[in-house]
Design brief:
Layout lengths: L21 E8 L10 E6 L4 H11 L20 E6 L61 E2 L6 H11 L2 H9 L13 H14 L4 E2 L2 H6 L13 H15 L8 H6 L1 E9 L5 E8 L2 E4 L12 H9 L2 E3 L5 E3 L4 E3 L1 E9 L3 E7 L1 E4 L4 E4 L9 E3 L14 E3 L15 H5 L18 E3 L3 H4 L4 E13 L2 E9 L6 E5 L2 E5 L1 H5 L13 H4 L3 E10 L16 H25 L1 E9 L6 E9 L4 H11 L11 E7 L4 E5 L8 H4 L10 E6 L13 E10 L4 E2 L3 E6 L4 H12 L7 E7 L2 E4 L7 H4 L4 E7 L14 H11 E7 L5 H13 L21 H23 L11 H6 L20 E4 L13 H5 L19 E4 L15 H13 L28 E4 L1 E6 L11 E7 L4 H12 L6 E6 L5 E4 L13 E7 L7 E9 L7 E10 L4 H16 L8 E7 L2 E6 L15 E7 L12 E9 L4 E2 L3 E5 L4 H12 L6 E5 L13 H4 L22 E6 ...
Parallel strand pairs: 1-3, 4-5, 8-13, 24-28, 29-34, 35-43, 44-48, 49-53
Antiparallel strand pairs: 1-2, 6-7, 6-12, 9-12, 10-11, 13-23, 14-15, 16-19, 17-18, 19-20, 19-23, 20-21, 21-22, 24-25, 26-27, 26-28, 29-30, 29-31, 32-33, 32-34, 35-40, 36-38, 37-42, 39-40, 41-42, 41-43, 44-45, 46-47, 46-48, 49-50, 49-51, 52-53
Helix pairs in contact: 4-13
Length: 1333
Amino acid sequence: MVPGEENQLVPKEIENAAEEPRVLCIIQDITNSKTVNERITLNLPASTPLRKLFEDVANKAPLDHTSDKSLLDANFEPGKKNFLHLTDKDGEQPQIMLEDSSTGDDSAHDRLIGPLPREGSVGSTSDYVSQSYSYSSILNKSETGYVGLVNQAMTCYLNSLLQTLFMTPEFRNALYKWEFEESEEDPVTSIPYQLQRLFVLLQTSKKRAIETTDVTRSFGWDSSEAWQQHDVQELCRVMFDALEQKWKQTEQADLINELYQGKLKDYVRCLECGYEGWRIDTYLDIPLVIRPYGSSQAFASVEEALHAFIQPEILDGPNQYFCERCKKKCDARKGLRFLHFPYLLTLQLKRFDFDYTTMHRIKLNDRMTFPEELDMSTFIDVEDEKSPQTESCTDSGAENEGSCHSDQMSNDFSNDDGVDEGICLENNSGTEKISKPGLEKNSLIYELFSVMVHSGSAAGGHYYACIKSFSDDQWYSFNDQHVSRITQEDIKKTHGGSSGSRGYYSSAFASSTNAYMLIYRLKDPTRNAKFLEVDEYPEHIKNLVQRERELEEQEKRQREIERNTCKIKLFCLHPMKQVMMENKLEVHKDKTLKEAVEMAYKMMDLEEVIPVDCCRLVKYDEFHDYLERSYEGEEDTPMGLLLGGVKSTYMFDLLLETRKPDQVFQSYKPGEVMVKVHVVDLKAESVAAPVTVRAYLNQTVTEFKQLISKAIHLPAETMRIVLERCYNDLRLLTVPSKTLKAEGFFRSNKVFVESSETLDYQMAFTDSHLWKLLDRHANTIRLFVLLPEQSPGSYSKRTAYQKAGGDSGNVDDDCERVKGPVGNLKSVEAILEESTEKLKSLSLQQQQDGDNGDSSKSTETSDFENIESPLNERDSTSVDNRELEQHLQTSDPENFQSEERSDSDVNNDRSTSSVDSDILSSSHSSDTLCNADNAQIPLANGLDTHSITSSRRTKANEGKKETWDTAEEDSGTDSEYDESGKSRGEIQYMYFKAEPYATDEGSGEGHKWLMVHVDKRITLAAFKQHLEPFVGVLSSHFKVFRVYASNQEFESVRLNETLSSFSEDNKITIRLGRALKKGEYRVKVYQLLVNEQEPCKFLLDAVFAKGMTVRQSKEELIPQLREQCGLELSIDRFRLRKKTWKNPGTVFLDYHIYEEDINISSNWEVFLEVLDGVEKMKSMSQLAVLSRRWRPSEMKLDPFQEVVLESSSVDELREKLCEISGIPLEDIEFAKGRGTFPCDISVLDIHQDLDWNPKVSTLNVWPLYICDDGAVIFYRDKTEELMELTDEQRNELMKKESSRLQKTGHRVTYSPRKEKALKIYLDGAPNKDLTQD
């Protein structure tokens, strides 16, 4: 209710209603799934009786209730919102209060049918505005006794036709008489059989609505067809054709023709001699025009439209008819005459038209009345006595269009195109007697029994059917799953139009809900049939009814079982594999706990592992890993009671707990907490696997120690207990009298227990050995590292180098873990420092001895070849089976980046080499996602960037720069090491242990795996230093890639970030390749091929340096292009130019300097373009554009040609185009290309879609805006005529253009998408010849 209308609900006996306090009631209907989210709002006087409230609600949702208690007495609060729920009473659905239709009082409650109106619903849910819908649950059958059809998505048109056929006695009875032979056809693809099943269900089902998926599946449709709305008349024609095909050589072979087919004569009569030429056509429906072409007024009624249908036209003037008898062109009369009307007369009101002003389809909503009884005797042919009474059914004047009845009706008298949509049928001819007009004239009274209504526009809408039952002469609305009674007044509302005059614009303001198809039945007592009674069913239908009832009962029982089934997560720790398994236990609520255990036992496949007596179900909280309680003595208790009833979700899970045969299950009581106890051995520096004990929150620490002492047999007197409340939060329990609850214990807890005789307990906890061991235990993760493949060259160098420096032992052996204070680490440090210094000096020497002595100009391949493997001068005994624990630096805030590089540049920096040139770099992440296809891949779901971003944010807040994986030109102050080679920063102990690992994964020969246990607080720089002995090269010459699902790789490049983002058992790949030096940038080089289908081709990765000229970079590229790409180029025969996505841009001149004339950044991309001749671009004032000639007479485009302009003058552009094409200057027209290079466009569009010959004098103004090199210009000769194409040529050209443009990622926009034709596939599957579509 809206406030302005609330006075409708004020009782008449209240005089001063305006002064009385009012009660705002908001009612929610939860009895109906459709209305649970809707609200009814009532604003009533406080003295309103409850009876009146119920009456008002019943007016909206028709109910019945009586009570004289006032709203105030019922504790309603005036001035506030009072929320009410409309619920079931004693499990019964509220039923509609049926009104006597004989009252005829439509002013009180205006009945509505069809789509429920959204506007003007007076503040209430639209479902309550109309009483035409059953107010019952979806599962209950409508009170009308009829069953609805479920709309699959947009299949309302199908539902309307199916309900009409079902309510046609002659059709339904004939369908029932047809018997399906399963041996001859698959029932799934049999259209008549599926229709038969559907009709049986519509007649016998107790459901409110049934599905039509089996019927559409027999049509050969898939789920996508449900989203295609079609014309109901088109469906009727196509489905009748399909049924005729399926019913060949059966009793029903001529059923469609007997019921729906009529005949008419198409004639032309000479007005001079009276000679008449004619042919006989058949029809299944009569299309009636709503509004004559060119007229602003519509026909007032169906009778008017029928008279206009047979109204002849005069052929005169240029339209004269050539008379065979007169042997000349004469004036003639052309028209149609009805010869025979069918038993079931179908009239199509052609409401869909085409507006040639707007060039859009429109719907005509004009009013057109239709009678309940239609006398067709006035339209039958009474004139022609010369016409023979027997004629061939075949069209004598034209080729048959594809059925035994002619499609001439559709072709001559509709605006549809001539394409025959549906099934192609063979020509079929026959003879049929035509009754004399005089015999039919007195028996041509037809009664209306079906109105198919369309609501909406020409773009789409909704269909439903109003059908009169021949059983009780009552009209019903069949609106998908809703079936309701309606009256004759409701039928009149489908006439369309408005109450005003039928002017030109009346259609635009009229209701969009109106009749579209009318079906009449001839009133003939001798032929009018009644529906078959149950005892009259053929035997096969009786069997089908029985089968369908059994299936429905089975479904009902299954739904009942589903409603009484408890579905809960089930976990089980496999007793042999020690892997937590997960499944879903579905158990009936009446099953006992013992039976549920047996079900879970079989579900987890434990039959051959342990006996069922060693299993039990316990209440479990998976999130906290907490066993809440066990169920001792409740083996015979129903699961519904144990679980608290059948629920959609449970706040707990079940665990199938197992034990060994000699063990006894522990009792878990509600209120207990679970504690996992880890025993710590300080001497062995080990942490044992957990032992589970259960305690109470009110126990003291002393009592808890006694409990643990009994469980693990350690003395309680010297026991130290450390509680780990969360990650890196260790608390030593020191107060004996404190309760566990006060110490922070919860449902599930983790403690570490140590009870040695050492003096470690006397030290402060954070300084104790116990704390350090637990801290290391909490932060140590296991990683699997794949070492790089050792090429023969590098491997021999390493081997020789190792021999020269002494036997280094097996590099796969463990690093040594040196125990004791810092002083005892000195020898290991000395080894590491000496090795590092030697590695550095060797690397420096190799770089100095490299080609040309300039490492910045060496290729990436040469970087590899020039790196000598480092010497590992440790004695073999110092490497074999030992762990290395070193104090490593906290990374210095100073980084390796040059100050000129922006944060975004740094953020995108990568190290890529020719060994892993397939690695692509992401431009927005701190790491690089890689794959083997040279394409960026979305990050894996498991990628955790939180620690990366939070670390970056923290550093930014501290005002520190980030250290990236780059190498320095010297070992200056920005280096990770100072001059003495010692690491700077705060000294910390970081655990690192590596050992060889054998894996089943085929990593290839030469690859080795390491299993590394490492403190995740270690920095990437320190981690790489630890890996140096195993990789065999300096840390600055290899890169770390983190491996994710599907072998996605993500490069880690921030040296000062820790491994905190790494998870347990992460995989890491090590790749060889030097890091960038200060001022160097990784550049991806692509070849520009302007006239190729794919104009952008990746060539290689290169390194450009700050201060380098373009010519120097070209000199460095030449050998790389020769070796890696097989391109032999001279320095003056190619150019470099800017690349923006796929668009070529500014041409870089040889003297340009990077970072001065050309802005460069990490992951920069550049085009390399091979020149046909000498470089024409000499200065930045020139402009290079790419021109392409369009030849309209040939419907083709010439290849690209570059045009170099000295200025931005349009006149100069015209002159240059004149020079290269030979077109006279005054005839040249040009247009700028659209989109990304190469600005592809269909040859069907280019002539009219581009902005040809813009009225500008310079190129750098609107609408051209050509200010940089690389713009695309199309040009043409304006005197050249456009080729005229036939329909076949145009269709063929469209296919070619569509194929071409799809390959380049462009679309053909020549014409709008053609609507998908409605087809029914007789073999149950779509036609594989897609060209027919």
